What we know:
mainly alpha, 3 helical TM bundles of succinate and fumarate reductases, 85% helix, membrane
Amino acid sequence: MNASVSHIEVMRSQLGRARGLGAGGSGVGHWWAERVSAAALLPLSTWFVVQMFRLGGADHAEVVKWGGKPVNATMLTALIITTFYHAQMGLQVIVDDYVHGKAHLPTRILVKIGTSLIGLLGVFAVIKLVAAGNSQKS
């Protein structure tokens, strides 16, 4: 009887793998989302670093003018959204691996809310930068 129980557990594990479901139940889709967001962050982060070197020593008015340009505002927004999405995905893996019991669900919710709020704050800052850049033009 003991051998049949372990056989069933092995079969469930293999079935879970075949369906693409890991221990957290999120599976291959989560893994791909992490990789795609990481790949998107490479050019976005490179662009941002280059822009910060270009703006080194610039005064406030120059930075506001730079941030008011649609391409720069779009790139900044994409960087912020992708960064906090990627962070949320990574933190979710940590929570799934190390937080168990009753604390698991509240911790996952806190991670999602926290990363979403901080990301939203970053997007709001870009909107303010664009508004300030547009008010300088007129």
